[in-house]
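Handout, page 2. Input:
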Amino acid sequence: MDLTRDEKMLIMLYSPGTRMGLCGVLKEMKEQLQNDETELLSLTESVLKKLSDMDDETFENLNLSLDF
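Output:
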């Protein structure tokens, strides 16, 4: 699963430790975004799509290291 640096950062900031938990947290956060937060909305939707396309084992094995 290819994740961008920004997607990895969003996952690290919001993940409670499980794929389904992260989906729930991101959906809640998405509902609270302001109209001008389009970039964060787009990023969140991208992560949610990728999370729905993977299973729990894939999520647990994600490499979330950030290459600077």
